[in-house]
Amino acid sequence: MVITGLRPGNGPRRWNAARRKTTFEDGTGDFRRLPGAGPVRSVGRVIEVRNLSKRYGGTVAVDELSFAVRPGRVTGFLGPNGAGKSTTMRMMLDLDRPTAGRVLIGGRRYRDLPEPLRHVGALLDAGAVHAGRSARHHLLWLARSNRIPAARVREVLELTGLESVAGRRAGGFSLGMSQRLGIAAALLGDPPVLLFDEPVNGLDPEGVLWIRRLMRGMAAEGRTVFVSSHLMGETALAADHLIVIGRGRLLADTTVPEFIEANSRSYVRIRTPQPERMRDVLTEAGIPVRQAADGALEAHGAEAAKVGELAAAGGLTVHEVGTRTASLEEAFMRLTGESVEYRAGGADR
């Protein structure tokens, strides 16, 4: 499902009136604003989720959830399967009615916004397109229904790399092409608020890099960017802030570095041809140590310098010694381990 809006952004960029083109100062992006829009003002809009709950009979999908999504940064929305992410995003857009609580965008409910499709661009289901329409006709239909100039269609087709296939029926598109069409529709109105559910789904590596730069560039303009993803590595690269939920409840609302630090433990990795002797030296010094799958040792609760000193004092040969920190995925698994609906056989418990 695609929902589009029409509001200009603001931020560090250069405006070329002749080409109607915006280029981010870091050179990463080619987002084009609506023709004739000219210079813009700040559009900072906070999405406020207040005590939001959703029940389906006896099943609680979202349970008194509260958080805020602020402009000027990319906010990642994470949670295990069945955590309530999609339900929450649908309630943000008034596609599902909350059992209790509400969501405000710029202080108003989505349905109370004047011409709401001009305020928010969203990609929830890239497959929600009339299969018989061409990509161009699909976007033209959206543009007409939202009073967006037809010239904007050409611009978003070019931006998303679909210009050469614009005349093809959407029903024949690959998953990656359908995803790009959904992104084009979300960008069509130049909205100040963007909601993306799994935006890199089906994209090739170039496309993943492109959408990452696009999201970060639009956040730098002052837009509100909220993105749900199950790809931890990509989220770590794209997001500035994280909202993490489990079983419909808020688990974390923090920056990416703070989340990793709070939900993981750093350790010292040691590679040595004398692992047993190294283990004995560390154990005698009161340092907990375990052996990794590749044979390296992992010492917890000690500084790398201390480990090096102990190895030198014991006359041990060391090929590698250095501090390692957990990845976002490791921190996520540690936090949400008790919130998953199911586990595959043999999964860590």
UniProtKB/TrEMBL annotation:
- Highest taxon above the source species: Bacteria
Q: Which Gene3D superfamilies match?
A: P-loop containing nucleotide triphosphate hydrolases
Residue stretches in coiled coil: none
Q: Per the database record, which ranges form the ABC transporter domain?
A: 47-272
- For the keyword Plastid, the answer is no
UniProt lists the family membership as follows: Belongs to the ABC transporter superfamily.
Please state what the protein is called: ABC transporter ATP-binding protein
Supply the source organism for this entry. Answer: Planomonospora parontospora
